[in-house]
Each structure stands twice: as C-alpha cells, then as structure tokens.
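re: the backbone from monday

yeah here it is again, tokenized this time
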C-alpha cells in the first residue's frame, strides 16, 4: 500500500504531503488517522521547528472529504467521521510549532477546513478555495463553519457556506482566508522560505505566541492580557530569551536551543 501521508525533512522543517493524487487527495478515515499520527510525530520531534502541509499531484491541496466513502456512512459512522476530522484539526490548531498550509490547488470542503486549521496559509495564484458542502446537501463537518467565521467574519462566512461557490486565490487573500498568494511556479520556494524563517525563531517563544493567540481568540481581553503576561514571564526566563537579547546587543545572529 502506498503511504497516505508522505513525510520528509528539509533542515528543521517537516513537510507533510497528503498522497492520494488520483482522488485529488480526498480525505477518508484512514487518511485522517495517518495525518493525526504524522502531526503527533512532528510535535514530539524536537528537531522539527515548523511544519508545511500540502497535497500531492500538483492539482489539488485537498479536494474535500472523500464523497464516495462518505456516501456509504450510517448516521453513527458519519458522527464518528466528523469527530475524527474535528480531533485532527484541533490537534493541528494546537500544535506547539507553526504549521503552514501550502495551498497548491483546490482546497475544497474538508480540504479548506484542513487549511484553516493550519496557522498560516500561502496559496498559488491558481488555487481555488471553498466550502461546497451545501451543494451536496451537507454542511462542513470538521469545524469549517466555526473556523471560517473566526477567520473572515460573518458576512463572508455566510456567503461562502450558503452559496458553496469557490473563490480564487486573490479573493481569498482579500477576505483574509489566506495570508499570501504567489505565482504557482514560486509557491514551493516561497513557502519553504517562510517555513525556514519560522524554524529559525525561538521555539518556546513561538509556542507561547501560538498559545496566547489561541487563548485570546476564545476569551475576553482582560483574561487574554493576563494570559499574555504570564506567558511573557515564563518565556523571559528561558535560555533562548537571554540568547536572543544577547545576540541583538552583540550584533550577531541568535542560535536558539529550545531551552
Ligand atoms: N471525494 C472523492 N473523490 C474525489 C473528490 C472528493 N471530494 N474530489 C475529486 N475526487 C475524485 C474524482 O471522483 C475523480 O476520481 P475518478 O473518477 O478519476 O476515480 C478524481 O478525483 C479526479 O476528479 P475530477 O475528475 O472530478 O477532476 P476535475 O478536474 O474534473 O474536477 C474538482 C476537479 C475539484 C472541481 C472536482 O473533482 C470536484 O468538484 N470535486 C469535489 C469537490 C467537493 O465537493 N468537495 C467537498 C467535498 S464535501 C461531515 C464531515 C465532513 C464534511 C461534511 C460532513 N460530517 C461527517 C457531518 C466535509 C464534506 C466535504 O468535504
């Protein structure tokens, strides 16, 4: 059997590739489970400082949940499938290191939900993104309504989910659905440059930032500020904070050690 998820490392960047190109990388249960295991492994590996997620085959990031598999599910199985996907995407969102979606083509339905669970999204100008579930008589089942609302606000979230119509990459950037759009030919280089820059930053500071932004998105400003200052105190006591400040003062590049 071929690997559903390919994993390779470029220096401190782990590249994960959903590998079902003949099905435009559609997500079935086994692929969701393999992705979960791959993210667990990336989280546990101290040598990995940033993760890039993409799709194989050059045409799609991920074209959605596997409709053929989904069409055979009972209600109970559909709930389990939804829980499996939600668990994976929560796991990704709460990763202690930054995760970048390299959106190299269609990101539809569960595929866009997957991209939205990443911390940053960079898209090829040829990519198309959308939540077409409504056209199948469904609604997003991996947290898509909730993450889209938080990313782009109510008006655009309602437009994308109620019409089901995909948007091109430029519109996705205007909505704030992706951080950056680059020519398709430059996508890999631009993504790896971004990921390498992230990987060079202090891991414990990034972890604290990921936590603070996540917590802040779910609570009021006073609780969020308190959380931020607690994280600041914690990070301030690390070797990497000493190293970062000393490197600045010594006019040299810092070398962070995750301590
Ligand atoms: N699932 C299964 N197979 C898919 C697929 C998908 N989402 N997308 C593409 N494929 C397969 C095609 O069936 C075809 O397979 P073969 O016939 O060759 O065996 C192959 O990939 C190539 O696709 P096309 O021949 O269709 O390629 P085209 O270039 O003509 O079109 C396309 C590309 C992306 C426009 C088209 O494939 C397309 O419209 N795909 C479906 C996109 C879509 O509707 N995605 C959203 C899926 S729904 C829930 C949990 C989760 C969800 C909902 C509920 N709960 C449990 C409650 C999430 C739902 C979704 O994601």
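seq for it, each position gets an aa:
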């Amino acid at each position: 059997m071929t690997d559903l998820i390919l994993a390779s490392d470029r220096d401190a960047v782990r590249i994960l590739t959903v590998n079902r190109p003949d099905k435009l990388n559609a997500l079935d249960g086994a692929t969701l489970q393999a992705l979960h295991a791959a993210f667990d492994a990336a989280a546990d590996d101290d040598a990995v400082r940033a993760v890039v997620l993409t799709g194989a085959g050059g045409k799609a990031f991920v074209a959605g949940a596997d409709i053929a598999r989904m069409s055979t599910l009972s209600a109970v199985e559909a709930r389990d499938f939804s829980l499996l996907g939600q668990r994976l995407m929560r796991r990704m969102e709460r990763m202690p290191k930054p995760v970048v979606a390299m959106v190299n083509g269609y990101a539809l339905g569960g595929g866009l939900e997957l991209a939205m669970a990443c911390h940053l999204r960079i898209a090829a100008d040829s990519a198309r993104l959308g939540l077409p579930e409504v056209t199948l008589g469904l609604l997003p089942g991996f947290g898509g309504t909730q993450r889209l609302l938080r990313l782009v606000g109510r008006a655009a979230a309602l437009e994308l989910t109620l019409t089901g119509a995909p948007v091109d990459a430029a519109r996705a950037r205007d909505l704030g659905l992706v951080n950056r759009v680059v020519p398709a030919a430059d996508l890999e280089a631009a993504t790896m440059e971004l990921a390498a820059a992230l990987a060079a930053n202090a891991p414990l500071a990034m972890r604290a930032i990921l936590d603070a932004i996540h917590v802040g998105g779910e609570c009021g400003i006073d609780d969020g500020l308190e959380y931020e200052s607690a994280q600041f105190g914690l990070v301030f006591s690390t070797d990497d904070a000493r190293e970062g400040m000393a490197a600045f003062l010594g006019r040299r590049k810092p070398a962070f050690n995750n301590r």
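The mean pLDDT is 97. The longest strand covers residues 5-10.
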